[in-house]
Amino acid sequence: MYTDNGFDYDVAVVGGGPAGLTSALYTTRLGLDTIVIDRGGGRAAMMRETHNVIGIGEETSGNELLQAAREQIQGYGAEYQRDLVEDVTPLGDDADDGFRVSTGDESYQVCRVVLAMGFTDNRPEPPLPPTGRGLHYCLHCDAYMFVDEPVYVMGTGEAAAYVAMIMLNYTDDVDLLTRGEEPEWSDETATMLEAHPVDVISEELVGMNKGENGWLESFEFADGQVRSYTGGFPMYGSDYHDNIVDALALERNDDGTVAVDDHGQTSVEGVYAVGDLTPGHKQIPVAMGEGANTGIAVHKDLRAFPRSLEEIESQGEVTAADVPAISSTLESTAVDHEGHAGGPDEQSLTASDD
């Protein structure tokens, strides 16, 4: 692999959410020396329960999901480091010249970079219930929780108005809270709202009541009214973690997401992006799919064999000394792994057969 040519790693994944960890899972299992550098936190880590991930039950928190994923990739031979990447710099004009990935104290030379930093949802001002106990950021994940329950949506923009109307698919009790701010949605959207049974409440919040289990029960408003809610969705936009995106001058879409092709390749060859940085639904299964797709693409980009006719002409035929094209560290880790064909289970079975 490229680590034999002076690189510290074949692949650096910047960010340790579901998209980044899945990318690392695939690149590592496909024989590429991979490091994940993760500052911690993120949207997935905020989840009290995991929704919409097949095979994972409600009892699994986001932190538990991520911890299991970190242990999984490390078991295959990936390195995981908790740190903040401050800069990614091309080492030349060609992708195969590689990149320098720098944290505050360390720097690594790598051949390919996968950006998976995600974004942060903007929180409204208090009073607010705890995240996951009445404050929720993903309609597609959490609408199911509020079937036939009183729900609020906070915000003044188009997204807030539309989410309020969408929630009528699940409950007949939806309030849109503008919290003393003037609505910014269009006249067309205002006409749509008037044709839907959504109550627009303009008063500011002055208090909140929670149950013994910590769940929101009601909000108190400046005009003295108290309205009951089981939960709701603040719609105040998001901030992309995009310092590296800007420094690399990656092409962006109109909504601020990073422009990528079908394999996660950005406008800078050798730099990929996955997860919430990119267009599409902000869902864990979608992020995992993007991570898998990009991990496979990076493998195809970097794998040593088959050599093309041009490479055979310039480098010669592949010899026994050239194979396998995997680092000695990954090779030994794979051979010792329980999932290896000749691993402990297989060895025990062979011994019993004897």
From TrEMBL:
- What keyword terms does UniProt attach to this protein? Flavoprotein, Oxidoreductase
What domain of life does the UniProt record list for this protein's source? Answer: Archaea
Where do the segments described as Disordered lie? Answer: 313-354
Q: Which residues form the FAD/NAD(P)-binding domain?
A: 9-291
Q: Which InterPro entries match?
A: FAD/NAD-bd_sf, FAD/NAD-binding_dom, Ferredoxin-NADP_redctase_2
The answer, when asked if Cell cycle is one of the entry's keywords, is: no
* Entry's Gene Ontology molecular function annotations: oxidoreductase activity
Q: What is this protein called?
A: FAD-binding protein
Q: Which organism is it from?
A: Natronorubrum aibiense
Q: The organism's lineage?
A: Archaea, Methanobacteriati, Methanobacteriota, Stenosarchaea group, Halobacteria
